[in-house]
Amino acid sequence: MISTRFTEMFGVDHPIAQGGMMWVGRAELVAPVANAGALGFLTALTQPTPEALFKEIARTRDMTDKPFGVNLTILPSITPPPYAEYRAAIIEAGIKIVETAGYKPQEHVDDFKANGVKVIHKCTAVRHALSAERMGVDAISIDGFECAGHPGEDDIPGLILIPAAANVVKVPMLASGGFGDGRGLAAALALGADGINMGTRFCATQEAPIHENFKQAMVEADERATDIIFRTYKNSARVARNAISQEVVRLEREGRPFEDVAHLVKGARGLEGLNSGDTDHGIWTAGPVIGLIKDIPSVAQLIDSIVAEAEAIIRERLGKMLDATSARRAAAIA
Ligand SMILES: Cc1cc2nc3c(=O)[nH]c(=O)nc-3n(C[C@H](O)[C@H](O)[C@H](O)COP(=O)(O)O)c2cc1C
Known about the structure:
Elements: H1 5-10, E1 16-18, H2 27-35, E2 39-43, H3 50-63, E3 69-74, H4 83-92, E4 97-102, H5 106-114, E5 118-123, H6 126-135, E6 139-143, H7 158-168, E7 173-176, H8 182-191, E8 195-198, H9 200-203, H10 212-220, E9 226-229, E10 237-240, H11 243-253, H12 262-265, H13 267-276, H14 299-333
Parallel strand pairs: 1-2, 1-8, 2-3, 3-4, 4-5, 5-6, 6-7, 7-8
Antiparallel strand pairs: 9-10
Helix pairs in contact: 2-3, 3-4, 8-14
The structure holds flavin mononucleotide.
Residues 19-22, 24, 43, 71, 73, 101, 122, 143, 146-149, 176-179, 197-201, 203, 285-287, 289 line the site of flavin mononucleotide (FMN).
């Protein structure tokens, strides 16, 4: 067991979170993550209405009695979803842990805190982590440039971003983006984080509620098989490389406005692909950690293997390096 400020604060066995994932963060995935001793998040906006989210929370509770949370992603939109109503459903359902992501979560943080809900805010820059800390969040999850989804516009990889954030952030912090095995967990702890958050790696598990073809595509892909789209609209998103992402990149290179790519990147189109198994039908979110994915384990097997590998690295591989140094010094003195 690896005990950190994160495991203590959120009452889970392992310093591992499954971040919010549009279309994927449903009861089928979140319950096994909770049962395996990690912290899973349902994705609020995957549910069509706040009432549906309330029911999805109840459905998850039927499948686990361990803690789990809900992700609320706040993105700019022409017709924004009823965020306050989703928030009310989360509170009314008795959820005690929320992952917020996106823009200016102050009003949400205030309401969650007033109702005894712990908030982990996910962000992509040290300055945003500090601003969330000032807003009163309980923990930070910081996404490096490697992450699937929205990496921000600064392009700072985790190897720099995590220790830079750890230097100044006082609340517990998860490292996110590019994590998929025990080596990553040990590295994140060494860089100053209290645990890891993963998205892509959880998509390639038996329980992830997406078509088998996507899981197989992740096993077959290498670490180069992602694209950054929407860079020219200052809303960068990292997605799996496919026919659609390549077309979007091409149109952006031509300087086309968002209206010209909107039909290609519609959420409904992505969902159709996820359900039908056509990996070229729409865009789908994944990070370059796909290059490390070689199998499709159960969620419990994945979490157990990550923890066991991290423990072995810390205790044996790194420990033996120290032992060997001490032995050489002792021999030199003798
Ligand atoms: C399929 C998928 C959908 C995602 N959707 C969301 C989302 O709706 N809201 C959010 O905050 N993050 C979302 N993310 C980001 C993850 O929560 C997490 O921060 C990211 O995947 C970490 O990088 P990794 O994929 O390298 O582990 C998504 C990631 C994936 C893979």
